[in-house]
Each structure stands twice: as C-alpha cells, then as structure tokens.
Specification:
The structure holds 2 protein chains of 2 kinds. Chain A is of the alpha/beta class. Chain A has 10 helices and 18 strands. In chain A, the strands form 3 sheets. In chain A, strands 1, 2, 8, 9, 10, 11, 17 and 18 form an 8-stranded mixed beta sheet that branches. In chain A, strands 5-6-4-13-14-15-12-16 form an 8-stranded mixed beta sheet. A two-stranded antiparallel ribbon of chain A has the order 3-7. The longest helix of chain A has 18 residues. Chain A is globular and about 65 Å long. The N and C termini of chain A lie far apart (43 Å). By secondary structure, chain B is mainly beta. Chain B has a single domain, classed as Folate-binding fold (2-Layer Sandwich), CATH 3.30.2270. Helix content of chain B is 11%, strand content 39%. Chain B contains 1 helix and 6 strands; from the N terminus they run βββαβββ. A 4-stranded antiparallel beta sheet of chain B has the order 3-4-5-6, with no helix packed on it. In chain B, strands 1-2 form a two-stranded antiparallel ribbon. Chain B is globular, with a radius of gyration of 14 Å. The relative contact order of chain B is 0.28. The chains are: A alpha/beta, B mainly beta.
C-alpha cells in the first residue's frame, strides 16, 4: 500500500477500514541467501538496501524480540555529519544525504527535521578546534558555520552566556543536522524491506552458528536451524555476545548510556544544542519534551539502566548551560547498551570466518549512521568489498595500526 | 553502586576510577599477537566479570572487583597487589 495525503483522506471518509499491516510477521524458511541478525535500524536498513540497491534475493532479518525494540528505540534521535577525521566524515556525510532523501525513498514519514546542531565553544582553544573541525567538514562536502557570541545569542537568547567559569564564546553551527522520529526509521525500513520480499522474523534469537571448514553454513535459532550463504551480525550492544557464539573476541566493551525526557513544554528549543564545557546535549521533541543526555556511566554493563551519579552530572551540566531548566520536571530516563569500541569508531567488515560479516562498535553514534551503515553493510554483503566511505571500518585496524580515534583517547572505551 | 574497598570499606562509586577488565599482562617479548590481544580484544561478558578500579578518592589502591554486568551487583573486591590475575 502506498501512503499519500489522498489515502489519508479516503481512509478518513471510509472509517479507516482499508489500512493493512505495514509488514508481514514472517516465519522462517529452511534457508536464505542472506541472514541478517538484528532487527534494529541498521539490520533493517541493510536488508532494505540489499534488496533495493544490490538486487539481493532471499533475505531474512532475525530479531530476538520485536523490531525497533533495541537501540533504535532508545536513542536521542539526532542526525549529524560533523566528524573530523577522513575515515569518518565521508561516511557520515553519505549517511546525512541518505537521511535527506529517506522519506521519499521509503514513502514513509520519518519526521526528518533538519533543525540544526550547535556545538558551543567556551574558550579560544575550543574555537580553534571548532574552526578546524568545520573546515574538515566543509572539505568533505558537509556544512559548517562558526558563530560568535552574538550569533549564538540571536539563536538561543536563554543560554547562560555570562557563566563565570564557562562563558559562551560562540559555536559551530551544522544547519543540516537535526532529529528524526526514531521508531519510524525502524518501521519505514521494515515496510520497505518487506515490500521487496525480505522476511522479517521476530522472536527469533540466534543461539549459535553452524561453521564448517571455516565457512558459515547457517545459524541455530530459538525457532530452529536456518541455513544461509552469508550471515551478518548487526546487533550493537550485544555484539560480543553474538560473535562469541562464533568463537570471536572483539575490540569492544558494552557500556550503558542514559538519556532523559522532561515533561512536555511549549516550543522552547528550536534546534539541538551541545554544551562545550561538559557532556550535555539537548533538543525538543515534537511532542514538547526536552530530550537530553550526557556521558556513558563509565563501567561495563549489559543492564539497560544506569546509576544516579550520571543523572546528577547531566542535570548539573544542563542547568549550567540553560538555567531555565531548573524549573523543568524530569519525566523519565532510560539506558541503552552501547558497543564501545577501542578507538570510538565502528566496524563494517568481514570476519575471519568465511561468509560471516560484522557491523557494530557504534559507540553512542549508531542512530545517525543508520542509513549509511545499512547501505555499506549491504554493499559488503553483495560485493565482498567495503563501500568507498567505509574502508576505514576494519576489524583488524588495531593490529595493523590504522586506528580512527576521533577523540584521541586511546584504547580506553569508556572515555570515547 | 557501592564498591567494598578492602582498606576503606564500602564506598560510593564516584570515589573510584574505572580501568576495565583485569587481564594478565603479557611478557614484554610475548609478540605482537599477544599484545594486540591484551590491549584491544575483550571477552566483554554478560554476567560476572573481574575488573580493575582505582580508589583515587580514597586510599589510592588498585582493586580487582568482581561484578555482574547484567545486574550491577558487586560480588567482591580485593587488592590488585594481592589478587591472582
């Protein structure tokens, strides 16, 4: 079924009896050409692009719970292309371009809203850093504008400009960044993939791999054995658990990242703001809640909840930047599990096992990468070569010395 | 989360700095593969794990803490200088 304004009017006049499910709840077949583990944003996007762009047939997406129930439903919905390093920025710019055309491509309203992201600076050194980053972004085809204090004041007059310790000296504005309705991304890709014949199999947990002579033959699941020519793992947060079933150890630790939503307010914050003197970022959802977050909790965790010290830290940073937040009531908070990689950069690569592919290590930046990660994983599955924007995302880059460390922290995942 | 420091007693998580999994350090001449493994690759278990915490807001001791990553339950802590890796 194609969605359109005409269809909405027609259904409104006929009692909404014509709507059909957006995708089939498929049962597993005995074997497939491609099995993608993980029905999150990345896995569904990979299945969609594999079918739509690379002519893939007989594709299944296996999801242990329900699609969109993992990190694609637990993030702060921000999209941006403001990385600095050559290994990263072309990829994220590719992703942002895919976001810009996503709704037309999928015929699905994902509420892509390019409301702009402002990274604030509070010192001369930070301004130099922002200028350098902005230039790197522009050289890679993205957009960046360096604002002075007055420029920031015009956009966001309610910020605390005269904080004695961290006065606002300007900011790097990335106008094409913004937010997207995150659940709709999973649902849109699921619907698009389903229309191209992809089987989306929910409540199907992978419990093992069948590997013979170094080549993957299929996966054992809670719904029986499923044969496959190629298998890809796209389960960020649980990558180490799934890949350990194939006997692999990864350069990844799992950490918990918290995020928060306030009570609904009238339109207050038009774009996305990030604090430069502490880890705090904030935007306002279309429902009116302020969506904000900060650092990961800092210790390995698979529990989808965090501890209070980070709540305190995030709220302190928020009130330091936006004093008016002090009167806002917090509605809820939640935690998501991140694949924190050793250099803060993801992986889209083959593994030492023939026919087994890996997409993961997205740290807390996986949502914005969804379209490009899906495309690049599909490219890798279809052609056995990395996409031109994802050549740096190799699993063996630590051994070969080709790390991509955007933050310069070294092999300490909780600091990225 | 509170950690039972063997010297200071039970203390708030904020007094500690987190390092990561408690691993056995390879010999200096163990070779590239062993060092790659030690520096970059992790078991990252969902369940009990042994990890290094530094009590920088207290006695300054390095601890080996056994903790459950699924529940955040702290099972025990010992001084790293006395712990077997």
């Amino acid at each position: 079924m194609r969605y359109s304004g005409f269809r909405v009017i027609k259904e409104a006049l006929t009692g909404h009896k014509g709507w059909t499910p957006a995708w089939r709840d498929a049962s597993p077949q005995a074997d497939y050409d491609y099995v993608i583990i993980g029905g999150g944003g990345h896995g569904l996007a990979a299945a969609y692009y594999l079918a739509a762009q690379f002519g893939g047939k007989r594709i299944a997406v296996l999801e242990k719970g329900w699609i969109g129930g993992g990190n694609v439903g637990r993030n702060t919905t921000i999209i941006r292309s403001n990385y600095m390093l050559d290994g990263n920025e072309p990829f994220y710019e590719f992703s942002l371009k895919l976001w810009e055309g996503l709704e037309q491509e999928l015929n699905y309203n994902a509420m892509v809203s390019q409301r702009g992201i402002l990274n604030l600076v509070h010192s001369d050194a930070q301004r130099d850093g922002a200028r350098r980053r902005g230039n790197a972004m522009i050289l890679n085809g993205s957009d960046a504008e360096l604002l002075d204090t007055e420029g920031v004041r015009k956009l966001y007059p309610f910020l605390n400009f005269d904080n004695a310790r961290f006065p606002i000296k300007g900011g790097l504005l990335h106008r094409r960044g913004g937010t997207v309705r995150h659940d709709a991304v999973a649902w849109g890709y699921a619907r698009g993939a389903d229309q191209l014949g992809v089987d989306i199999i929910q409540n199907c947990e992978v419990t093992g791999f069948r590997i013979e002579n170094g080549k993957v033959k299929g996966v054992e699941t809670s719904r029986g054995y499923i044969g496959a020519k190629k298998v890809a793992s796209s389960v960020a947060g649980s990558s180490s658990r799934v890949m350990s079933l194939a006997g692999l150890r990864l350069p990844i630790e799992s950490h918990v990242l918290q995020a928060f939503v306030s009570e609904g307010l009238k339109p207050t914050i038009p774009g996305v703001i990030t604090f430069g003197a502490g880890h705090f970022y904030c935007s306002q959802s279309d429902k009116g809640g302020l969506v904000f977050g900060g650092d990961i909790d800092g210790y390995n965790s698979y529990a989808q909840r965090g501890n209070l010290p980070v709540v305190e830290d995030v709220v302190e940073s928020g009130v330091a930047l936006i004093p008016a937040l002090g009167r806002v009531r917090l509605l809820r908070g939640w935690g998501g599990i991140m694949d924190m990689s050793m250099d803060g950069t993801p992986f889209i690569d083959r593994t030492p096992i023939d026919g087994l592919y890996f997409n993961g290590g997205w740290c807390y930046g996986g949502f914005k990468a969804t379209p490009a990660a899906g495309w690049c994983l599909a490219h890798l599955l279809a052609t056995d070569t990395p996409h031109e924007t994802a050549t740096a995302y190799r699993l063996d880059r630590f051994r070969t010395g080709h790390i991509v460390d955007e933050k310069g922290q070294g092999a300490q995942p909780n600091l990225h | 989360m509170r950690l039972p420091c063997p010297i200071c007693g039970e203390r708030d998580r904020r007094e500690f700095y987190y390092k990561g999994a408690a691993l056995e350090r390879p010999a200096p001449d163990a070779g590239e593969a062993a060092w790659d493994d030690y520096v970059y690759l992790r078991e990252n278990p969902a369940g009990d794990t042994r990890e290094l915490w530094y009590h920088d807001g207290g006695c300054g001791a390095w601890l080996v803490v056994t903790r459950n990553t699924l529940t955040h339950a702290v099972i025990g802590a010992e001084l790293a200088s006395e712990a077997k890796a």
